[in-house]
Amino acid sequence: MALTREIMGCSAIERTSPFLTSSKDLLKQNTLVLVKSKPVFLQRRMNLKVVPAMAAIREDLFIKAVPGGDQEEKPVKFKVRAVVTVKQKSKEDLKETIVKHLDAFTDKIGRHVALILFSTEIDPKTKAPKRSNEAVLKDWSKKSNVVAERVHYTAEFIVDSNFGVPGAITVSNKHQQEFFLESITIEGFACGPVHFPCNSWVQAKKSLPGKRIFFSNKPYLPSETPAGLASLRETELTNIRGDGRGERKLSDRIYDFDVYNDLGNPDKGIEFARPTLGGKEIPYPRRCRTGRPPADTDMHAEGRVEKPLPMYVPRDEQFEESKQDSFSAGRLKAVLHNLLPSLKASISAHNHDFKGFSDIDSLYSEGLLLKVPILQHELLKKLPLPKLVSTIKESSQGLLKYDTPKIVSKDKFAWLRDDEFGRQAIAGVNPVNIERLKEFPPVSKLDPEIYGPQESELKEEHILGHINGMTVQQALDENKLFIIDYHDMYLPFLDRINALEGRKSYATRTVFFLTPLGTLKPIAIELSLPQSGPSSRSKRVVTPPVDATSNWIWQLAKAHVCSNDAGVHQLANHWLRTHAAMEPFILAAHRQLSAMHPIFKLLDPHMRYTLEINALARQNLINGDGVIEACFTPGRYCMEISAAAYRDWRFDLEGLPADLIRRGVAVPDPTQPHGLKLLIEDYPYASDGLLIWSAIENWVRTYVNRYYTNSSQICNDKELQAWYSESINVGHADHRHAEWWPKLATADDLVSILTTIIWLASAQHAALNFGQYPYNGYVPNRPPLMRRLIPEENDPEYASLLADPQKYFLLALPSLLQATKLMAVVDTLSTHSPDEEYIGERQQPSIWSGDAEIIDAFYGFSAEIRRIEKQIEQRNNDPRLRNRCGAGVLPYELLAPTSEPGVTCRGVPNSVSI
Questions:
Q1: Is 914 one of the catalytic residues?
Q2: What's the pLDDT tens digit per position in 400-433?
Q3: Cβ-contact 186, 196 below 8 angstroms
Q4: What are φ and ψ of residue 421, in 5° steps?
């Protein structure tokens, strides 16, 4: 038996499979054929002339070895079966139902779904890949009324006994309607079942005249591609790239690049025009090309597609149904929550602003209620939501009430404390801007001729009383001083921002002292404005309070810091560094890496849904007059600030260790587990992040070393090099000449590049995204915009601050409409969908790769992720770690790998999927 397996080159056929041809059937079909073939490994080891069993020949019918001369007989035909799994929609509209029944009828008269099976071998006579006959899916019409998530069909192929190993299948859909092809399994070949994980929409021939090509799960480097698959590999990549012309149809699968010239809508008016992002004037990453015609009033701006019409992304990138349902429910909720404050404001002219903190609390306890007559309001009539309107009538409170954000769930007043303000700098929703203060006072890098003196107004006397008796130099030398510096990012935009109605901002710097307990204490805040004249005072330093008045000024200063922080978090760290910067790598991967390429198989789960969520963001969130502009201080200049951040973006510093070292919060130390020593020992984001970073890096290294045994293989891998080159030279074209791009010449280079991409798509995005509602949902904790500056003693508004400081503070925060709109949006963005796939998980984990060694390694990676989750849980229960454990202190779970659906403030999905 062992010899038989070795001759066959694979494990024995699973005898339990219902689709295997029986021994009697094979005897009846006269399928036992000896084909001239000499496996090299057997010639060396046994010096025998042997014939491997081919196709569906069973072990018990196989003649193990034939001593003597070669035998030649004509190959004979036999049958193998395909099991085809189609994933059905759970909900269909009327048109889809009608077309489905029409397809069931026409399937009976020959308009089938047809498949052709291709071998990995070339036919010596035709010089083309060996192929089967065309086979059709059976029982499509009979199963048209089956109510199930998945429906299984079969098809039978006729192949020669010398067909070889199947490597590709083409699918032709002669129906009227597309269908989602999840997988195909071919059973009956000697090597056992051959799996084709497809996970793709197959369009009708009217939309896609050619045939769809799917490859088996066995990975091949380009140089190792079997001869029978080489042309199919090239054809599929050519199909995906398209020709760069024309407007894309929603059914297309074309991946291409374009600049961000679709954020504004100049046809609505000059106030809705926005500059193009991407190019020499305003550098930016590229996005997925849609090819829409230009706007009527600006040939350089692409025409808008406004909601609810869909924005183009390649068909397979669109949300699956459960994800769409989840996102639609959240989006629906957002629409309601955007609308309701407007309605409430229309009833009373006095409820635009929060009058007291109880007004904010009531959003969670009582919600925003509507009276039935208000449902006839003109705004509501414009919404295509009649069913939902009736639902509101039945139960208004349930739909219109916000969940209590986590930040106030354990301690209602935590947000007021300085230690919580410091804790959120390293364990909140934006823990990636804190830096070690390397020189005091800090110095600006902006041009002094344009923006005034580069020196800060921070002086030693501002901080001496707050650093435990140290001198400033001692505190610097002992790594006790840290800073969050938004001066240079905001100052160039402040004149324009502060000219907007209801927007007021400073460029802030905040200095923190690392206490002996390991917590961060804010000790000085510098607030800068542009100079209005040579002698004007443009900088102001606020220090911790000593009395009631200075306490309110301190709270306002912290609110302005949080507003700066919210903008940088959303526009630079979250959107730019994880969403926008990843898109070019994803587009290039689809265009240049075959689905057979092992690196594509590795990256595939980390690219899921990103193009779709980015397109939705361009349509609803980052667009001109969209949610981000409405809710964040920079208003119409939001995306220009994002583009300004891109000028300093460097891919080589986006990996976690490199980023921590760049910010000076860690130093290289080979004696430490991750090769780094954290200067803030209890830095939850960094310490948990390093666990996940190392797990990803070890998994990627194991994977890369499996397929590349030397550097020449990497340098000569034309698909791999084309992917990386296109990601840089086209996707990040405005940085293509930068010297900091990592080289791709060795296995270590590839491991580093892939680890960084997977880290950004999974853990980094999770750390920046899923805490948004838990932290930002209580607006005083992190106001996304401020409407008032802090008055000086000689300002007319100073008297208002003294007379009613709480009222002044609330008037400086966002309005009711702005606050509730932001709450609705970040609630949606913080929500895990039911079909979320978390790090360490994969669809069809046992067959996503045809490489058993890699499957084993992946299960090892999954086990390591589970171990990390337990370690994070232990850390959150350690009372010595005061930044994640204590009275009223939130545990740090944003990098805990798994989560339930919903808003949980934890969970690391594989990809940027929301």
A1: yes
A2: 578 899 999 999 999 999 999 999 999 999 999 9
A3: yes
A4: -60, -45
Is there a contact between 35 and 75 (Cβ–Cβ < 8 Å)? Answer: yes
Closest residue by Cα to residue 824 from 773, 784, 780, 782: 773
Taking the CB of residue 271, how many other CB atoms lie within 10 A of it? Answer: 11
Q: Which of 487, 569, 579, 606 is catalytic?
A: 579
Q: Could you say which of 487, 569, 574, 735 is catalytic?
A: 574
Residues in the chain: 914
pLDDT of residue 668 exceeding 50, the answer is yes
Task: Give the pLDDT score at 856.
Answer: 97
pLDDT digit string, tens, across residues 493-511: 999 999 999 999 999 999 9
Give this prediction's pTM: 0.89
**Rg, C-alpha atoms of the chain:** 31
> Rounded mean pLDDT of the chain?
87
Exactly one of 217, 769, 781, 883 is catalytic; name it: 769
Query: How confident is the model over 732-737, as a mean pLDDT?
Result: 98
Give CA separation, 118 vs 81, 166, 228, 236, 896, in Å. 14, 6, 7, 14, 44
User: Quick one: pLDDT at residue 90?
Assistant: 79
CATH of 77-217, one of 2.40.70.10, 2.60.40.650, 3.40.50.10490, 2.60.60.20: 2.60.60.20
Would you list the domain boundaries of the chain?
A: 77-217, 321-404, 417-567
Known active-site residue 462: no
The rounded distance, in Å, linking the Cα atoms of 575 and 577 is: 6
Half-sphere exposure of 705 (CA within 13 A, CB side): 9
Task: Check whether 53 has a pLDDT greater than 80.
Answer: no
Q: Lowest-pLDDT range, 7-16, 418-427, 892-901?
A: 7-16
Q: Which of 735, 765, 854, 865 is catalytic?
A: 765
- Active site residue: 122, 186, 463, 914, which one? 914
Q: Please state, in angstroms and rounded to a whole number, the distance separating the CA atoms of residues 693 and 759.
A: 7
Alpha carbon 775 to its chain centroid, in Å, reads: 20
Q: Is 487 a catalytic residue?
A: no
Angle at 201 between CA 197 and CA 203, to 5 degrees: 130
- Residue 176 and residue 155: Cα distance in Å, rounded? 20
Q: Which amino acid is at 846?
A: S
**What is the per-residue pLDDT across 434-474, written as a single tens digit (0 to 9) for each?**
999 999 999 999 999 999 888 999 999 999 999 999 999 99
What are the C-alpha distances in Å from 437 to residues 421, 480, 481, 662, 874?
A: 18, 8, 5, 12, 31
Contacts 24+ apart (CB under 8 A), 163-166: 163/54, 163/55, 163/119, 163/121, 163/130, 163/132, 164/54, 164/119, 164/120, 164/121, 164/130, 164/228, 165/119, 165/120, 165/121, 165/189, 165/191, 165/194, 166/117, 166/118, 166/119, 166/120, 166/194, 166/216
Active site includes 175?
Answer: no
Active site residue 832: no
Locate 250 and state its tokens.
């929603």
The third-level CATH classification (topology) of the domain covering 417-567 is: Nuclear Transport Factor 2; Chain: A, (3.10.450)
